[in-house]
Design a protein that fits this description.
Layout lengths: L3 E5 L4 H13 L4 E8 L4 H7 L8 H21 L4 E7 L2 H11 L4 E5 L5 H7 L2 H8 L4 E4 L1
Parallel strand pairs: 1-2, 1-4, 2-3, 4-5
Helix pairs in contact: 4-6
Protein name: Nucleotide-binding universal stress protein, UspA family
Pfam family, one: Usp
InterPro entries: Rossmann-like_a/b/a_fold, Universal_stress_UspA, UspA
Length: about 140
C-alpha cells in the first residue's frame, strides 16, 4: 500500500499534472510537495553547502513560496491535504535524498518530455531521479 508520496513541483504545468495524478491515484496517501531552489553555485556550491549571498536569493525564495502555495491550493481544490518542503541545491540529487530520508513509498514526478539534443544538453531531472531513487518513481508525461 502506498502511504507516503513525494511530488516534486517546479511551477510547470507538467508538475501540476503530476500532482493531480498523485491525488487521483493515491487519495489516502500523505502527499508532500517538494520544491528545490537551485543553488546557483553549480555542483561545487551544492556539494560544499555554500549558501552565500546569492544576488537573486530573495527572488528564488519568493518563487519557491509561490510554487508551493499554488500547488497546495490546487491540492485543496481537489480535496487533498498536503505538506510542503523545500531544499537548495541540484534538483535531482535533493529529490533522491528526500525520497530516501523521508521514508516515502513513491515519487510522482512530471517530465517535460524533452527528446534528442534538448535532453542531452539539458538533462532530465525525472530520468536522473528514476535511475537513482531508493523508492519507486512514477514519471508523469
Amino acid at each position: 500500500m502506498t502511504e507516503r508520496v513525494l511530488v516534486p513541483v517546479d511551477g510547470s504545468s507538467r508538475s501540476m499534472e503530476a500532482l493531480e495524478y498523485a491525488i487521483a491515484m493515491y487519495p489516502d496517501a500523505a502527499i508532500t510537495l517538494y520544491h528545490v531552489i537551485e543553488s546557483g553555485q553549480g555542483d561545487i556550491g551544492a556539494l560544499s553547502g555554500i549558501t552565500g549571498n546569492i544576488p537573486d536569493e530573495e527572488a528564488a525564495m519568493t518563487h519557491a513560496e509561490e510554487v508551493l502555495s499554488t500547488a497546495s491550493e490546487r491540492a485543496t481544490e481537489l480535496g487533498a491535504t498536503v505538506e510542503t518542503a523545500r531544499g537548495r541545491g541540484r534538483p535531482d540529487r535533493l529529490i533522491v535524498k528526500e525520497a530516501g530520508e523521508g521514508e516515502y513509498d513513491l515519487v510522482v514526478i512530471g517530465s517535460h518530455g524533452r527528446d534528442g539534443v534538448a535532453r542531452v544538453l539539458m538533462g532530465s531531472v525525472a530520468e536522473k531521479v528514476a535511475r537513482r531513487s531508493p523508492v519507486p518513481v512514477l514519471i508523469y508525461r
